[in-house]
Design a protein that fits this description.
CATH class of the largest domain: Alpha Beta
Low-confidence stretches: 210-262
Bound molecules: adenosine-5'-triphosphate, magnesium ion
Radius of gyration: 19 Å
Number of domains: 2
Distance between the termini: 16 Å
Strand order of the largest sheet: 2-1-4-5
Strand content: 25-35%
Mean pLDDT: 77
């Protein structure tokens, strides 16, 4: 299996001096569901923002589909085939599902007016293609959170995302909605997509995946290998020698979990 995304030795220091990522490396194989688990403030969202072009790292590199890339903005990321569903959803509450779907990609009628009929048609098409039901005419603010999230996922898919990042998607969902989301993620994987999924909850990640854990603390790494680990995954986790260097400084720990569907 090919590696679709690699982040190597990422350093991100915010303007206020907070070190959110240091020496962080992670690799994601194509067509897998890859989970990243870490405690509050561990730097998960920051790393994803770097991959999606919202933040820029001071050090490190990103390799996407075998090429070293500079992702300068979300627009850049989307163009390359990366989509992101944020921890706090980014939809316009007073607009309809269809309007949100095409926001920024508006089909214009007579080059002036928003073509609502076309927007509804596009929404129906994409919704059908991925088997994700959404009501095109309803306003976002009138929909339950699970459906809003589905709109965000569809929006990314409509923009041809091959790699889909979901930042703590289950934190706002009920157990039932979580189950629906997991089925969606499995379906998307079946359709060839790659998914990075951030979570606080190991228990939950286990539902859709085998686990392998390693604990990365700054530039060194202490392994905590789960019993479910396969040899292949072990090789995978040791393929970053920089993460095995001895301790150089003390930074709060980050837990990475590479997960693959069982
Ligand atoms: N824009 C910012 N400016 C300054 N510091 C920030 C900024 N964004 C995040 N931080 C800090 O960087 C660190 C990592 O934050 P981040 O949001 O990436 O963590 P996280 O793992 O996603 O946490 P959570 O589980 O709470 O979502 C935290 O200490 C946070 O306070
Ligand atoms: Mg976060």
């Amino acid at each position: 299996m090919e590696t679709i995304l690699e982040a190597k030795n990422i350093l991100k220091v915010y303007e206020n001096g907070v070190i959110a990522n240091r020496g962080v490396s992670v690799a994601v194989e194509e067509n897998t569901i890859h989970a990243i688990v870490g405690e509050n403030g561990a730097g998960k969202t920051t790393l994803m923002k770097i991959i999606f072009g919202i933040e820029q790292s001071q050090e490190g590199e990103i390799i996407f589909k075998g090429e070293k890339v500079q992702i300068r903005s979300p627009h850049d990321a989307i163009r390359k085939g990366i989509g992101m569903v944020h921890q706090h959803l980014m939809l316009a509450p007073d607009l309809s599902v269809a309007e949100n779907m095409i926001l920024g990609k508006e089909p214009l009628r007579a080059r002036l007016f928003l073509d609502t009929d076309r927007a509804v048609e596009i929404t129906r098409q994409v919704s059908e293609q991925y088997g994700l039901k959404v009501p095109p005419d309803k306003k976002i603010k009138d929909l339950p959170i699970g459906v809003r999230q589905r709109v965000e996922i569809l929006k990314a898919l409509f923009r041809n995302a091959e790699l889909l990042i979901l930042d703590e998607p289950t934190s706002v969902l009920t157990l039932q909605e979580t189950e629906v989301l997991f089925n969606t993620l499995k379906d998307l994987k079946e359709q060839g997509k790659t998914i990075i999924f951030i979570s606080h909850k190991l228990k939950e990640v286990k539902q859709i995946a085998f686990l392998h854990l390693y604990r990365s603390v700054s530039r060194y790494c202490v392994f905590a290998i789960s019993p479910l680990l396969t040899m292949r995954e072990f090789w995978f986790s040791t393929s970053f020698p920089s993460m095995l260097e001895p301790a150089r400084s003390s930074v709060w720990p980050v837990w990475w979990v590479t997960a693959r569907p069982s």
